[in-house]
Amino acid sequence: MELKKLASKISSKAKKNGALQTLETKCEIFNDPNCDIPFIIRKMSDNSNKFFSKSVTNCCNKDPFLFPEQELIVKELGPTHLLILNKYNVVKNHLLIITKEFIDQELPITKNDFLALKMVMKEIDGLAFYNSGKIAGASQSHRHLQLAPTPLAEKGQPIPINDILIRECPQNLGQLKTLPYRNLACLVPDLKTNNWEEKILKIYSESLKLLNLVSEKRLLPYNLLITKDWFLMVPRVNECYQSISINGLGIAGTFLVKNQDEYDLLITTGPSKILAHISSGPM
Predict the structure, then answer these.
(1) How many domains does the chain have?
(2) Most buried residue, 111, 117, 253, 269, by CB count within 10 Å?
(3) Long-range pairs, 68-74, Cβ under 8 A, ≥24
(4) How many CA atoms lie within 13 A of 39 on its CB side?
(5) Are 183 and 234 in contact (CB under 8 A)?
(6) Is the peptide bond before 151 cis (omega within 30 degrees of 0)?
(7) 260 lies in which domain range?
(8) How far is CA 263 from the centre of its chain?
(9) CATH number of the domain enclosing 159
(10) Per-residue pLDDT tens for 175-192?
(11) Phi and psi torsions of 8, nearest 5°
(12) How far apart are CA 169 and CA 227, in angstroms?
């Protein structure tokens, strides 16, 4: 069975038996006057907010990826990785690429990680992203890459920042000054290219060095975003703006707020200013 159909089939079954918990949100588009990004804003329903907060509290001391729920497993990705459903999803069929053995999320991504990612991206069009630790928005320390199938919401652009990346991305690594955060970006080889994972690993390693993210023990925090067309890395200095937490989806232009207070804060401050805050501003 095709991977996209398989993921959808397992998702439907897991939702029926309660293993998959889709968070109910209300979605709208916000055009920030300070930035050429049509932001997507999702506001959680009160019930979803209460349920999610309780669930996060209950599982914070466990590693849900070491022995993942069988109902959430989509397939094996070679000897080192599994493809599973994101248990608390907002985007439909949101997938996680996890290592079978524990590897710290703050350590460098490996060739095998990118190879597993390629297996999925060749069959499912979407936004791949990586939150390198708590400050970058990771909820778990066990190595996991994510793939959110596009479109990311029922309204707006499939990926809010995509038009800017397609229009302005250089062939080789460079900064995009129209984005509100520090960044390095470039176009990527076709997924059918031989040794795609090695080429992406080289771009990734060079980006870490250019952004001064390499330290003695662990990497400094960053978000990595990859599509079939482009690569984007954004260094992080703050996990949140007040109570609003930002991960790779926020970097892509999609915000999730838990309540009306966070929604009002986001609108009043402006998404672009919040993104500049969590990344220490444009380069």
Answers:
(1) 1
(2) 253
(3) 68/98, 69/19, 71/10, 71/13, 71/14, 71/17, 71/19, 71/20, 72/10, 72/14, 72/19, 72/20, 73/10, 74/3, 74/6, 74/7, 74/10
(4) 27
(5) yes
(6) yes
(7) 3-28+35-278
(8) 21
(9) 3.30.428.70
(10) 999 999 999 999 999 999
(11) -65, -40
(12) 12
Q: Six-digit token pair at 205?
A: 């390693």
Burial class (CB in 10 A: 0-12, 13-18, 19+), 163: middle
DSSP character at residue 270: -
Q: What is the C-alpha to C-alpha distance for residues 274 and 6, in angstroms, rounded to an integer?
A: 37
- Burial pattern 11-32, b for ≥16 Cβ within 10 A else e, equals beebeeeebbebbebeeeebeb
Q: Which two three-digit tokens encode residue 39?
A: 């932001």
Closest by CA to 219, choosing from 142, 109, 80, 65, is 109
List pLDDT tens digits, range 13-56: 999 999 999 999 999 999 999 999 999 999 999 777 555 555 55
For the entire predicted model, the pTM comes to 0.95
Decide if 203 is inside a domain. yes
50: three-class secondary structure by DSSP: helix
Average pLDDT on 256-269 reads 97
**CA pair distance 234, 253, nearest whole angstrom:** 13
What 3-state DSSP class applies to 60?
coil
- Per the domain annotation, does 283 fall within a domain? no
What does residue 17 show for φ and ψ, rounded to 5 degrees? -90, 0
